[in-house]
Amino acid sequence: MLAEQMDAVSHLPSLRTVLVRGTGDTFCSDSDITERIGAEPDTVEHCFHWTEQAFRAVERCPNPVVAQIQGTAAGAGCRLALACDLRVMAGSARIGMPTARLGILPSPGFAARPVRLAGPVLARQFPYTGQLPPAAEAVTAGLANLCVPDAGLNDDVAALLADIASQPSTALRAAKRAVAEAAGEPSGRHLGPAVSYADLQRGIALFFG
Fold it and tell me: What are the backbone angles phi and psi of residue 18, rounded to the nearest 5°?
């Protein structure tokens, strides 16, 4: 769904920017791990492939994509946020990749996003430890652009969007292309399975134990 929506709006000639946000106090929940209990390995692999295509669609959008993050952006939520161009976090929000405990096997494309933003040191630390740094720490690390008070999140994001929208669309698209080329696009290669099936099932059992 997200991939189709992003590809559709990307063709709008008047497009200046796109906002990605959740509802209520959640930015984007991770996959429902209860659906993985006893699931066939091929089904699990297909789910990870499908979600990665959604994140790639966000990156393909020719105009800036802004993530408005409240609550916790973990796992798939973190990957979605990192696929956006700019991230504005509420002060109480957290972000991270506690993936190893569930046997998830990061691909080079998966790892490229935090490496480009925070560098290899922190890109290793967060998945290794499962930490979910708070917004202020995420900004310091380079994983987010702004940390704002919870009560002002909507207004601050609206002001940022207005600033972006005041720029010519052609210039915005050129800037996004230039930065993407300079930073290096995610490889998109997938050299192996997305998940260790046995570890995933053990991790789910521990989670609910």
Answer: -130, 135
Place of tokens 């005041």: 166
DSSP string covering 88-126: EEETT-EEE---GGGTB---HHHHHHHHHHHHHHHHHHH
Residue 81 domain boundaries:
17-152+174-204
Model pTM score: 0.80
Q: Is residue 38 part of a domain?
A: yes
160 assigned to some structural domain: no
* pLDDT tens digit sequence for 102-157: 666 666 667 788 888 888 888 888 778 888 999 999 999 999 999 999 999 999 99
| CA pair distance 123, 126, nearest whole angstrom | 6
Taking the C-alpha atoms of residue 179 and residue 88, their distance in angstroms, rounded to an integer, is: 19
3-class state of residue 24 by DSSP? coil
Measured from the Cβ of residue 190, the count of other Cβ atoms closer than 10 Å reads 16
**Are residues 83 and 55 in contact, defined by beta-carbon separation less than 8 angstroms?**
yes
161: enclosing H helix or E strand: helix 153-165
Burial of residue 32 (number of CB atoms within 10 Å: 0-12, 13-18, 19+): exposed
d(CA 18, CA 43): 31
